[in-house]
Amino acid sequence: MPSLHDIQAAVPPNGGGAVDKTLLRNAVQVRTAYVLGRAEDPGDLVGVDPVTGAAIICIVFKGRLFDYDPDDGSTPPDGITCLVTNDGRRYKLSDGADVFVYSVLSKALTTPPVSPSPTVGDAYLVAAAATGAWAGKSNFVAVLTERGPDWEFIDFGIGRLIYVEDEDAYYHRNSGGAWVAGFGNLIIGANTVRLSAAINFGKRVIVEDMTTTAPPGTASVGTAFVVGSSATGAWSGQDGKIAICEVANQFTIYNPGNGWLAFNKADGTEYRHNGTGWIAAAGSWVDRKSVSTASGSTTAASGTASYSYSTTTAPTTSQRRTIDTATISFTAKKSGAVLRFDYTADVLFTFISVTFTATTGPLVLALFRDSEADAIAWKFVGGLRELRAVVDASAATVTTVNAAVRDFFEIPASNTSSHTYRIAIMSAGLSNAPIDATTLTRRLFTVQEAA
Fold first, then answer.
1. Per-residue pLDDT for 27 more than 90?
2. What is the pLDDT of residue 333?
3. 72 and 211 share a domain?
4. Are residues 306 and 378 located together in one domain of the fold?
5. Quick one: what percent of the chain has pLDDT higher than 70?
6. Has residue 98 been placed in a domain?
7. What are phi and psi of 93, to 5 degrees?
8. DSSP string of 252-314?
9. Which of 6, 178, 387, 419 has its CA 20 to 30 A from that of 348?
10. How many helices (DSSP H) and strands (DSSP E) are in the chain?
11. How many domains would you assign to the chain?
12. Which residues, 6 or more positions from 138, have their beta carbon under 8 angstroms from its beta carbon?
């Protein structure tokens, strides 16, 4: 129901009666906020009217409102959340009132700065183990005021944000009372960060195709295209640019730069922009490593039985062979990627009298990995026909033959771990004569990984 201000009873309107001084004093005391000047001390103020016993209902101090709490007789004054008058009345910072400090110069100091000398209004987040004028005020915000001058200490509540200027960073006060960098466990909503917000990262886009020339009638957020050639409609003149749906059924156009990547779902190929156009990664090499030497390798052949060529049975380390000392350690970037091994060498073949089981058959080039006993790839050695021709013509007098070995292997990378690869030339029986590769010169061993 409606109620009149107390002043109506104390001072009746229109000469309706005499002024009631007691009611008037109470009306002023309990219905009017008492304003303290910035230089005044709340501790000097008497809060209760000695005539009527009425207490000041609220105090305005430094722009903040403090409400009288008649039930509190013990909270010490801090000038921020609690004021205590000369007669012991407690006034509490009103709910919803705030201290207007949103940034501090630093959070690294434990004592007030000396040089440069602080000025009124400077604020600091007091570091741990504070001393001197800041002793006992760690985690408080210290603000230099005009009183004295003196420091005012603010104990902000959980969840408050403070901007630290010398770090250009925000800190929040967590549930444990500590000031922690950032905004807590902030969850970014799906599809809320646009490509334009990325700075030198995020410039890889998964596109539906690279041939669409006009925006589709409907599209969900995240759908993207590389605009096809001779684009029309809203995409006219945007050939080769990225079109991304960032709002349902609407597309934003981005002009790709050198180094941008696009995976084309239509053909399953990665493309890179070179600053002018899109270049397909298909068929390109993403890594290469090689070892070469002109000097000879005279590693002796080892093993007691020759390898009898088979398309299904691999050569092994127990069979007679010459291992090239030029090895490669390589780590594939992607499991399953094609690895191409190229090998060239000038080889001195020697017909030997060593007793070992020599099966008539071709010389074989084999690729071994790490300490595995079985070769992971193998094939005929180039130049076999020339060797056989020489031997057939002069079997009685020929003891050595020079031949060039030039060949390659392509295998899938088994994983992305580092492996050491080596080449072996398997010994064989050629026209019933045992033969070893005894000297290898001008060798080049290369591995490349395909995209």
1. no
2. 83
3. no
4. yes
5. 88
6. no
7. -55, 130
8. EEE---TT-EEEETTTTEEEEE-SSSEEE-TT-EEEEEEEEESS-B-PPPB-SB-----SSSP
9. 419
10. 3, 29
11. 4
12. 110, 126, 127, 128, 129, 130
Which residue segment(s) compose the domain that 256 sits in?
Answer: 195-280
Are 246 and 165 in the same domain?
no
Q: Are the CB atoms for 292 and 445 separated by under 8 Å?
A: yes
Residue 243: helix, strand or coil by DSSP? strand
- CA-closest candidate to residue 186, choices 207, 203, 161, 209: 161
122 near 138, Cβ under 8 Å?
no
What's the start-to-end Cα distance of the chain, in Å?
Answer: 82
Contact of 322 with 438, CB cutoff 8 Å: yes
Q: Convert the pLDDT of each residue in 138-157 to its tens digit.
A: 999 988 865 455 787 888 88
Reading the block at residue 85, the tokens are 């008058």
Question: Which tokens belong to 427?
Answer: 């010994």
Burial class (CB in 10 A: 0-12, 13-18, 19+), 440: buried
Question: Which residues lie across from 297 on neighbouring strands?
Answer: 440
> By the 8 A CB rule, do 93 and 80 touch?
yes
Find all residues with CB under 8 Å of 13, minimum gap 6, and list them: none
